[in-house]
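An instance noted here:
***
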Amino acid sequence: MSGFEIDPQIDYDFNARESVADFDAEFGKLIALSNRAMADYPRQADIVFDADSGSALDLYGVAEGRPVFLWIHGGYWRLGTKEGNAFAVPGLVSRDVAVAVMDYSLAPAVNLEQIVHEVRTAVAWLHREGPSMGLDARKIHVGGSSAGGHLSGAVLADGWRQDYGLPRDMIGAALALSGIYDLEPLLRTQVNGWMNMDMGTVAALSPIRHIPEETDAHLILSVGGKERDGFLRETQAFHEAWAAKGHRVTSVDMAACNHFDITGTLTQTEGKLVNATVAAIRAFHL
């Protein structure tokens, strides 16, 4: 663990699994929603966007002129699949937004730098290949929960687009749920047992430390009201830091939700998170 000792309070604050009475039941609900979505919505499956890693994405709701939203799964960078995250599809596709749900290589087999690289590669692939499918990919919209919230923040971060052949300001709406935006607290949690992060990782890959000076991206933040303090603090701090730069940020109150069922609300065509995200996306495609 790079020499960092676990701090019991910090570890408690960021233990998502133990923040609910029955993790298996919560996880099972999301799998059921995802299975239903895969049955109800046709998809282009297993499109490899990164030849080096073999990582792939599934595309739903592709139609001429539609914007595209990339969903990045959580699981503390070591768990999760695109199939298990198809719950992100119904609400947005029913509102005429195409949705890509991606896989990425998982820790501890790879480090966080590689995971961030694959997510950014997926964004670049959608921007490059989307027009050939009829999508309006001038702006790519992203979202994710927990580790996926962090990875959405890594897409918003400054300083990487030129290396991927992308325009400087091509991210539109970003829906970040229950994310970790400053990685430093995690150095003293059990998470670092499989992430093996150090202060170099914290400096390079904490989104709150790489907020652009100029951007027209619209950040949408939310965290379940029943979540533990670590996630509540991270969301509040990222909101304040983004707003301090004068950037657009919207917070959506989800007081009745926990760390897991907040994502399940993305199945709701008129859900609060879907409404906020669609409004932000549409503003870029008038």
